Amino acid sequence: MKHIAAPFTLPNGSVLKNRIAKSAMSENFGTRHHAPSKGLIHAYRVWAKGNPGLLITGNIMVDSMALGEARNVVVEDYKDFELLKQWAKSVEGTGVHLWPQINHPGRQAFAAINREIVAPSAVPLKMGGASKMFKMPTALTEEAIWDIIKRFGTTARIMKEAGFTGCQIHGAHGYLVSQFLSPNSNIRTDQWGGSLANRARFVLEIYREIRRQVGAAYPIGIKINSADFQRGGFTEEASMEVVRFLEMKALISLKFLEVPMKNLP
Description:
By secondary structure, this protein is α/β, with parallel strands linked by helices. It contains 8 helices and 10 strands. The longest helix has 21 residues, at 142-162.
């Protein structure tokens, strides 16, 4: 406890003024057109007064055609840039860092608000009685996978330009990154499926694309399951291996990041 109020320096040199962070919550507080609402911006202004070191936003979706919830904020272009800047300024003068959590729902997208549902493989989501709210997903093509990867990078770059001081990849809770990592939901036989190295390729390419677009010094975090608690699914041992893959990619140079990834360890 004696360390909780002490500053914490991130590897890039950014300093969090203490060890207290608000993790992402799905606020579902955007406008009908998926912009940050005045109420959402005000909420972060209030939270910043609580003096944490870091505030992480709820889901920021990378594609307006792939929503986890009806009132998700979506950032795929600059149409709401002024509101994004106001959101970033909600912590101004407090020394609090504000990071967006960037996400794509994959198959975990309600059928009522999404025309098309995509996933690594055409494997339905099974959630007991709630399963009827989700459609059978369409397996992503190679082209669509690369489009989503680029979208993660674009969203991160726009948020950086708006004034956010870092970002977090949502790689947990059954969303698309998590779906690629799990052998239950990813049954592909190409370079994106099969071995853990192949299943991790999606999140590693997302990291690489974000890093390419935001530069070397910008903090990039990830929320990842330690296990998904599904028989035959993603395990704690696998999660630690994915963390090691990510750590390795974080240590390599930007020059290498400009070269397409061919083989993982």
